[in-house]
Structure formats: C-alpha cells, structure tokens
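Quick board copy: two proteins, each given as sequence then tokens.
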Amino acid sequence: MMKDVTACKVAVLAGGWSDEREISLSSAREVSDALREAGFDQVDLLDIASDGFLDAISHGGYDVAFVAMHGKYGEDGCIQGLLEILHMPYTFSGVLASSMSMEKDVAKVVYAREGIPIASGITIDRTWVPSEEAIGQIVDSLGLPLFVKPAGNGSSFGISRVERREDLGSAIELARKTSGRVLVEEAVDGIEITVPVLGNEDARALAIVEINTGSVFYDAKVKYEPSELHHIMPARLEPDVYQKAQELAVRAHVALGCRGCSRSDFIVTPDGTPVILETNTIPGMTSASLLPDSARHEGIAFPELCKRFVELALEGVR
C-alpha cells in the first residue's frame, strides 16, 4: 500500500441503470466531498452509464476505484469484474462475494452452512405458474404473514408483506419485475437491527443500529428519511444478544468472503435469536445511511471512514 494513501487518484464510481441510480449518485457526491476533506486531491466522480466511461476508467490514470453503486451492475459483481480485468484495486467486496450476497437465496445457503439462523422460505424461479393450488402450497408450507422479495435486488425495491392469501400472487408478480427469481419467506417478528462490519481478514463489528420504522417494514421510502427518525444506537438488546448479533454478522462477512465492509440485517425474535435477513456489500453512503451513522457513534467521522475504505482496498497491494 502507498505510504500516503491521500496521494492516490480516486475514481468514485456511481450511477448506472438500476432502481438505485439516484441513491448511488447521492452516495457518490457525499463520498467525493468526504475524500477531499480527508486530504485526497485527485477525486473524480464517474457515472458508469455515461458516454465515454470505459475510456475514462481505462485511461484516467486512477490508482483505486471507490465503488459507490447499489443494486444491479454495481453490487452484484458486474463492475467488480470489469475492475478485475483492468487490474485496478477497488473498495469493498470482490466478484464472488458481491454476487452471492446480492442473491438472497444463495446467501441463505451460506448462512445455513455456517449455522447462522435464517427464516424459513422458498425460492420461485421463472417457471413458476401462479394458480390457486400453487399459492395454497406456499401458504400451507410457510403460513401467513409472508414477505415476498426479489432474490437479487436491493434497498427494499419490490418487497411486499403479505397478510392475506389472495394477495400473494400479485406480490410475487411485483417482485418478478426486478428479479428473475423470487424469495418467499415467513415473516419473522421481533426487533429489527443492522450490524455493520468493518475490515478485511481482521473484520470487526461496529455499533448495532436498532431500526424503528413506524412502518410495516423498513421500505425504500423510510430508508432515505433522516436517520434520527429511525435509528437507535446502541440497539436496545440484552448484552449477550447484542454480542451474539455482532458475532453472527462477522461470521456472515467472513463466510461470504466480504472485504472492506458489510452490513447484515437481522430480526431479533422475542427469545433473543438474531435471524439474518441479508448482507449488504456496499451499504449506503449518504447522511441518512446506517453504516456511516454507526461509525460516527464509534467516533469515526465520515471523511475518516471513506479514507479507511480506500486503505482497505489497497491492503496487500504493492
């Protein structure tokens, strides 16, 4: 790693074509400002959907890419694959960890293998045909209420909570609009929390954030409202449950092969069991975002956090 990381020329990658394009651009602008505040003099924000992007990233003389993208093409391993081909170091997880984490049903297989509690559920592929019999089989197997979510999308887009049998078919069709496969899960009741993890091989959990939405679930609208409306730190959990949730988040980070950071979401059941919902490999980087909020609680200001991500991206690079 370079002795003075702020001497690096940084490409902040954002935008793209996913549902989360505007969120990504907001994250990228705040990251760019934070890196400059941390002492980086050469920071360019590049929209991957813009004309000339490939030429700019290939011939711009960048030392490292800061990936400020969410959803398809950014968080699923696609942009990471391009950066690997270019032999350019980049922040956050690699191709495999990104793609496994993005596909919620695949991540659940990894969680189960590692002994991390998961919600009961089934995956529906493109061949599934809605019918009274097919819907009845799902309800008989999992009960009600249910959560229906795209297997490969982020930021709660396309997610529905289903209370009535007759609403299940339309919820599945909604989720199908953004993903070929759909995950149908039992609705786990309890306290919603998120556990940020920072680091590579030496990863550690940050302060747990309790999420108090006042909504049916933590949907896309609530996620981008001011953080003080919904984030409680530290989470109001018994000490042993708090420690267990942190341990499970680190275990998920390591099992999936994440780097830089991750953020795993859980529901803590009334008996104190943290049930994992998903792991985000590129958490939001806006003023309302969960991971920066947690880092601030631990005394890590946003500019320092962004600088640390660059350092972690260059760890081991000579």
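And the next:
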Amino acid sequence: MSRPRLRAVRAHSGEQDLRLEDGIRAAYDAHGAELYRFAVRQLRDEGAAQDVVQEVFVRAWRNADTFDPAVASLRVWLFAIARHAVIDQVRRTRARVTLVSEDHLGQAGESTPGFDEAVMTGWLLEEALRRLTPEHRGAVVHTYLRGRSYAEVAAEQGVPVGTLRSRVFYGLKALRLALDEMGVEP
C-alpha cells in the first residue's frame, strides 16, 4: 500500500511559515497513514484516498489558525477535515457519474436527496462499530440498531439480561467516544 505524499502548496518564507510547515509535516508523519486508511475504507479507492489525504493537509495548512487544542486534539481536528473531504470526494464522483449519464443517455439522471449523507453516515457508523469489542458491538447492533428485545438477544447470546443491558450501555458510550475521535459531531 503506497502512502500519500504531501505536496507543497505555497512558497513560504519567514520563521512562522517554517514552523507551520514543520508542524504540518509532523502532523502528516503522525496521522497521515491513519487518515489514508480511513479514506480508503470510506471510498474503496486508493487514488481517491490519496487525494483526500492531500486535501486534508492542504486544508489544515490553509486553516491552521483555526485549530484550537483546547477544543479538540489535532487527530480529531484532522479527522473532522477528512470526513468533510471524503464527503466532497463522494459528491464530486457522483456529480461526474450524473454528468456522464446525462451525456450518454440524453436525459437528466435521477438523484436521491440526502444520498451522500446517508452513505457517509453508514460508513462512519460502520467504522465506529468496528472499534468496539465484539460483545459490545453485538449487543448494540442487535438491541439498539435492529430493535430486538433484550430478553431475546440475552437468551441467544447465553448471558443474563442485566449483562446485556450493561453491554449496550457501555457499548453506546464507547460508540459515542469512537465517533467523537473520528470528528463526527452529534
């Protein structure tokens, strides 16, 4: 798997610009590979994922003055930027497909309102669920997402209902934390 490369966007001079450049390089070294894996999982396209990672660091460079470590960690800030960059990439890809369809078919392509957001929400939820333990993930998926009764799921898993309730509680708590770490706002 090839790692995306950070390209220079602007010519810099002065001590402050050099510190910013060093900071961006350090952020890339610390988080670039993880952001790339996130983008590949979301887009299922290595080339598009490389473009997204490059875009994340370009946006970070341009908006470095908006980063506030008191509000969120650098990792969370970069993942929030990545989430938006992935959404933008999905929209661009979808727009190209629609334009190609219109050109070839001679008719306007139908679009589903909110499709991009629904796809991104599904991807983000899937990624956050992967970060849970299998016991917590199973409890949350079966009871909270699929709406099955606690008694039914507890009997299926061979655990007391109280244990299942505890797994759902702590699973939802861990899910919120995972989504927060990914930069997803409630």
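Board note added afterward: The first helix runs from residue 15 to 43.
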